[in-house]
Amino acid sequence: MVVNQKYRGRKSRFEFGEHSLRHMFSDNDQTVEFTTLYSGIDIDPIVLTEKNVIWKFVTIPFWFLAISTMGKVVISAESQMQALGGMIMVGFWLACVGMCYLFNKRGQVTLTMFDSAKGRIVVINDGKHEPIVNELENRIRSLYYDEDETVH
Which of 14, 46, 81, 100 has the fewest CB atoms within 10 Å around its CB? Predict the structure, then answer.
């Protein structure tokens, strides 16, 4: 059984064999490919959430612009139209902050990793995550347990 995953610049491939798993994972920086026996895979997963923190820091100038524009409106608005125009600009800067926040949240990717004798098996949390994890856990458990849950 072969399962491919692709999500936001990351690719993962799983080839489930009878006794071993062939795994390939690549992202923007690296590519890892190896074959490992199911008996060499640790059943306890590691969950990692990767974040693109740059969007969090991009919001700082927009917060500064919103606050300084609000101060300027409060201090120097001579008419209701000037105050309304200033408040529209404050709203624009706050909308920019909101967009950066959404990009920050959208840029998060959660990965489930299993340690093995040859490397980390990386499963991308997307629509195919559960079937892959279940298949992997079932194949690992089938090595150690019979149907009546007795240890080999």
Answer: 81
How confident is the model over 43-102, as pLDDT tens digits? 888 998 887 778 778 888 988 989 998 888 888 888 888 888 889 999 999 999 999 888
Spell out a b/e string for 4-30, using b for 16 or more CB atoms within 10 Å of the CB, else e: ebebeebebebebeeebbebbbbbeee
Beta strands in the chain (DSSP E): 2-7, 10-16, 20-26, 31-37, 46-50, 109-115, 120-124
Residue where the block lists tokens 């990793």: 113
Contact 10, 23 (CB under 8 A): no
Contacts of 124 (CB under 8 A, 6+ apart): 5, 7, 10, 12, 109, 111
Q: CB neighbours of 126 closer than 8 A, spacing ≥ 6?
A: 5, 7
Task: Please state, in angstroms and rounded to a whole number, the distance separating the CA atoms of residues 144 and 121.
Answer: 20
* Residue 138 phi, psi (nearest 5): -65, -40
Could you list the beta-strand ranges (E) of 27-73: 31-37, 46-50
